[in-house]
């Protein structure tokens, strides 16, 4: 078997893309989107009609038009995968719990209007303190969530306490920060992104948390291979293809019986201090929210009425 097929034996593989051709070819179980991926999707010919229709059906409400387009992309992807699609709440709402809840409810309603039940959707929310609180409420109401832009252990601990269905720690962006800050490259198990996900995975398993750990934002195959066995990994089409083209043994390195740290419940003040003490996480969370916000604005600029 190639390495992609081996990986699928002990990790759920998720496609980090809105490219329908790539999803059909590589056959992931789930898929994720975000404002950056939706911006790319909007330039693809097979989504042009969806972009036009989303604007026409929104009576000039640009935010609603973007949500409709997100759902349209999600519905097309769901035709090709057996699992779920993660659809993201506008990153500009990341510090407003009630606004995130309102947007999440609208996304669920739009999917239901398209005949898609909430059992096939994960609402994707930034892992701010306010985002964690929104996820806690949604989970109690039976809406499952994907907490994204996760860089610190404090974020991971708070998400587990809140009962989030899934977290997306960003391996590649953690690696990028340390590579730049330290002026050196990292390989294998010394990769700070790999170490972060490994620590979180072991903490969750040792303390019986049901929250799914889904490594995200990979830069190379080595990072993926070092996290083989993680609950889920969301991988770009290019790296999925490289895995599919790669032969050789791919052993499982993360296992549920791993030893992790004792449970520590995280209060708001502890969360904010511990996250603040992590310079990498503080910078990358803020940068990630800004980047998604800018891409959201660019997507809005592509709508017919904004051109």
TrEMBL record:
Its EC number is 2.2.1.2. Its main location: cytoplasm. Transmembrane segments: none annotated. It is found in: Cytoplasm. It comes from the Bacteria. GO terms for molecular function: transaldolase activity. It catalyses: D-sedoheptulose 7-phosphate + D-glyceraldehyde 3-phosphate = D-erythrose 4-phosphate + beta-D-fructose 6-phosphate. GO terms for cellular component: cytosol. The active site is at 124 (schiff-base intermediate with substrate). Keywords: Cytoplasm, Pentose shunt, Schiff base, Transferase. GO terms for biological process: carbohydrate metabolic process; pentose-phosphate shunt. Pathway: Carbohydrate degradation; pentose phosphate pathway; D-glyceraldehyde 3-phosphate and beta-D-fructose 6-phosphate from D-ribose 5-phosphate and D-xylulose 5-phosphate (non-oxidative stage): step 2/3. Transaldolase is important for the balance of metabolites in the pentose-phosphate pathway. Belongs to the transaldolase family. Type 1 subfamily. NCBIfam families: PRK12346.1 (NF009001), talAB (TIGR00874). This is Transaldolase. It comes from Pseudomonas fluorescens. The gene is tal_2.
